[in-house]
Amino acid sequence: MKIDCVCTSWYASVRTLRPDSLMEANNDVALDIIITNVVSVFRTRCHLNLRTIALEGSNVIYKPEVGKVLMKLRKPRITASIWSSGKIICTGATSEEEAKLGARRLARCLQKLGFKVKFTAFKVVNVLAVCTMPFHIHLIQFTKNNRPIASYEPELHPAASYRIKNLKATVQVFSTGSITVTGPNVRHVAMAVEQIYPLLFECKSTMR
Amino acid sequence: MLSNSNTVSKLYMSVIDDVIESVRELFQDEGIEDRVLEDLRQLWESKVMQSKAVEGFMKGPINPNNFVLQLPANYAQTLHKPTASIVIPAGQTLQNFTTKANGSGALATFSLPPGVSYPVQIPAGVTLQTSSGHLYKVNVPVMVTQAPASNRILPQPIQHVMEPREQVAPQGAVASVAPTAVLQTIPPPAADTYTPAAPSTTLLHPSEPQPVPHQQHLFLGQGGALQPPGALQPQLTLPAVPQPPPLPTPAPVTPDSPGDDEFTLDGIEFSPQPLDMSQPSPFAAQLSSGQACGGQLGAGREEVGQDGGGSLPVNAGEAKAQLVEPAKLEMDLMRDFNYNDLEALQQLDGACDSTSEEEAEEEEVEGGAGADEDEFLGMINAEALKALQEAEGSSEDDGSSSDSDALDDAVEEVEEDPLNSGDDVSEQDVPDLFDTDNVVVCQYDKIHRSKNRWKFYLKDGVMCFGGKDYVFSKAVGEAEW
């Protein structure tokens, strides 16, 4: 199986993977892995006064009940949760590079507000991607085949979830053939797709 | 918007009144003279006027009426006004009509001929309709004069002229002649009908309609010297029975300020109102002294402004005409009279009103937000991840627990990554898209956001938009970010 990455635009901001490293030749199938969300964190190493940010910053939402400020950026369309400890979680990016760029822009904004921020400890913590198989999947059979690793509780959730421990990735498999993959970074996500494809292929139901 | 300016004026006036009254005692206790308090009040009022946030102060309640009076683009001159009826003296096109002084009556539509010039006396209960279609109800007998009766801020050309005349006279009462009479302009460049603005022999009675030759400049006549164009009209000194002298010259229009109209309210105490300069270009172009100001007493400026768009072309066309352009002026004046009780007020708020104009919106922040420090960094991660919406399904929750492990590892390897002072970190592309002065100060019922769609449910606020103030008790808005 070959996983190709095509740049499709599902939202305006969605990106797809380009895992050149992932080459496996099982079938001649091109799979589009579309990254929908990248979550990252970084630290400013300084205390941030949330009230100041809320009053003077632009495009901010103050949530005093939770103790954080949301700041939204337009250019890389990201939303950042800012805590007074200086920890910032940045979400909404569509690629790792974009996440880093957005995080830096954000730190720059805070710097302009007067805080002595340092851009430290930037890390992508979560990547969410979706992928669609060209076939439907028989979830019960899939779960049976992968008994301990896959779990399926149709009354709770319509998807079977498959955790790949070594990759620390989770794949949710829907009967329509769509899957969502979350992992610590893009590479892991791509690897997870690769790994799970053959398992899905075995359980494909010929409805599609 | 018709009555908005009136509302705002009254509201502000009542605020000022309340405050002054309530501090009066305090001032006295402190041993400060009342004069100081009065000075404060004057300062306050003048500042509000100057800011042009309000159209001017109108005082007094007004009762609407059923008559609809169509004001032509140009006013011909004088109306004769018996106490209860209004008669528009003619030029050929002038028509006479009588209206009921107050009262309900059938809806009658009269059209003022184009030649009507100011001042025009409108009896109470008349609804005026400008050429642009705006309706204004006259609740009290009103005389539309050309002189600015109040300290309106005149449009540029006349500004200097007007300023000194601020004082406007005592408010007022029908009997008071002086203030209302104002009007007069500086010797117009080419006025056929123009009569030199001499303080004149004629007393302009507020209730009297005076034909006023509008020329570029308006001046406040003491006691209202109004010179009818070309002809001295016998002035009626009797307030009660103003007899507008027949207006001889209707037609030729000297370049006159269309905006010269000015309404004076009979029996309505009015204070000098600053002329609004809000109409800038069209009038300025036309050189009409009164135009922009419209000589209205507290006429809703914004109305003028709004009408300006529609009426300007009309006015422009008639700019040449020396007669006033009805559109703004009358309407503005009328607006003041239209103010009823609050019930009759038009509400600015409404569903689907887009307040996207507002540039900045200040909300009341609930108390001082207690700073809830998040002590536990490790847990923050999990919580934060959970709190982040847009997680597709529960995948994020699944990932968070495994992520926290990874994060802990990463914490140790803290790396200093210099921000380079923004070299690579570019500025926000549009730092502040448009930093306007349109501000809304209000309280909020609910602010809601979905993705990038915002919905605002606001209450009890004041909106400063385009330099004008609007007051609302409820406002609903939608915006996209």
N-to-C span of chain A: 19 Å
Question: What percent strand of chain B?
Answer: 5-15%
Radius of gyration of chain A: 20 Å
Overall SS class of chain A: alpha+beta
Low-confidence stretches of chain A: 3-14, 18-26
Secondary-structure map with pairings?
The complex is a heterodimer of chains A (about 210) and B (about 475).
Chain A: E1 15-16, E2 33-43, H1 50-56, E3 60-63, E4 68-73, E5 78-83, E6 87-93, H2 96-112, E7 119-132, E8 136-137, H3 139-145, E9 150-152, E10 160-164, E11 169-173, E12 178-183, H4 186-202, E13 204-205
Antiparallel strand pairs in A: 1-2, 2-6, 2-7, 3-4, 4-5, 5-6, 7-12, 8-13, 9-10, 10-11, 11-12
Chain B: H1 4-30, H2 34-50, E1 67-70, E2 109-111, E3 120-122, E4 126-129, E5 135-138, E6 142-145, H3 156-162, H4 178-181, E7 262-265, H5 281-286, H6 289-293, H7 301-319, H8 326-337, E8 360-362, H9 377-387, H10 395-412, E9 416-417, E10 439-450, E11 453-465, E12 468-480
Parallel strand pairs in B: 1-2, 1-4, 8-10
Antiparallel strand pairs in B: 3-6, 4-5, 6-7, 10-11, 11-12
Helix pairs in contact in B: 1-2, 7-8, 9-10
Structural commentary:
The complex is a heterodimer of chains A (208) and B (481). Chain A is α+β, with helices and mostly antiparallel strands and 208 residues long. In chain A, 23% of the residues lie in helices and 35% in strands. In chain A, strand 10 (160-164) and strand 11 form a beta hairpin. Chain A is elongated and about 60 Å long. The two termini of chain A are 19 Å apart. With 481 residues, chain B is α/β, with parallel strands linked by helices. Chain B contains ten helices and twelve strands. Chain B has helices at residues 4-30, 34-50, 156-162, 178-181, 281-286, 289-293, 301-319, 326-337, 377-387, 395-412; strands spanning 67-70, 109-111, 120-122, 126-129, 135-138, 142-145, 262-265, 360-362, 416-417, 439-450, 453-465, 468-480. A four-stranded mixed β-sheet of chain B has the order 2-1-4-5, with helices on one face. In chain B, a hairpin with a 2-residue loop joins strand 11 and strand 12 (468-480). The longest helix of chain B is centred in the first third of the chain and has 27 residues, at 4-30. Chain B is elongated, with a radius of gyration of 28 Å. At the A-B interface, strand 2, helix 1, strand 6, helix 2 and strand 7 of A face helix 9, helix 10 and strand 9 of B.
